[in-house]
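Hi there,

I know you've been waiting on this one. I reran it after we fixed the sequence typo, so this is the corrected version. Both the input and the resulting structure follow.
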Amino acid sequence: MTIAIIGAGLGGLALARVLHVNGIESVVYERESSRDARGQGGMLDIHSGQQALREAGLIDGFHEIARGEGQDMKLLEPDGTLLLQEDTPEDAPLLRPEVDRADLRDLLLDSLPEDTVRWGRAYESAENGVVSFADGSSAAYDLLVGADGANSRVRALLTDARPAHLGQNYVEIGIPDIDRTHPDLAAMVGRGTYWVLGDGLALAAQRNGDGRVRIGVSFHNTPEDWFETSGIPFDDPAAARARLIELLPGWDARILALIEACDDTVVPRSVSTLPIGLTWPSAPDVTLLGDAAHLMPPTGEGANMALLDGARLGLDLAARPDDFPAAAVKDYEREMFERTGAAARMSERVQKLLTAPDAARKMLAFFQPD
């Protein structure tokens, strides 16, 4: 059985690792030129995904790179009122630790044979058991797995569904080495996540393992082309920071100081999702996992679902080593559709709370139900 995995993200690598642990080799094709070709983003809250890492034999390595203190959280209103502060005891179990996405990806990459990932292979098409790449090369497969993210091109082999804009646009900024450069702001943010929710507006500041605080300023209920009319001059970082502050009228000066302290990395991002509960007729030689299969609101479930997808598909395939993969794919998809549909519905519920009037109080009730 020749298994071709498109995409060296967390889900694709988890699949390759679980297959490897069970004596089945696969090949991962990744469009990036190397593991260090670009940044891998910020921190991830890994909870249910830990089961996938156990199946992959990597849970001890995960515990070495996970940040238990990253479970700390502060929830505030825009006027600076602190509604909730959760501080994690030093001996607390690692139920929802934060981990740097790059560190987790490296853990998975380092657990695979050196030639498992083929870098610089951008997927172009697949037909009759042959996948073709942009560099003119091709490869045969018995099973093609699309683990190629939100803008998956493999997805088109199974469904016409495409991501749709969620009504959220955010600006990503950050403060490097915050403990040294801005110790007062470092103390204010704390060790984990600092979350400020207003009416249709939000600021989330999160500690990264490298000392950087990553900040997202979100504008909810806005159209996909909102950045074009927002007046944010992204080619002028200082002016962009000033405009962001203008767009947060009445917010406490201590919160706005986080924006003032940021460096010149100012990145606009739009948020899209796939339809909740998306399914497709099972095909014997193609399937999807991770964001390619179930892109959902960014409320902490996506990476966990991707890890579980990879592990469970790997286990289903390993349970039928002498069979053509059709039966394993059906079993995997049946479980995946149910599990990720429930996760997507929960993510949608949280997203609605974030966009509601008096969002901070509603989230407080979510975290502390009666």
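Quick highlight: The chain has two domains: 3-67+95-162+275-355, 164-273.

Best,
R. S.
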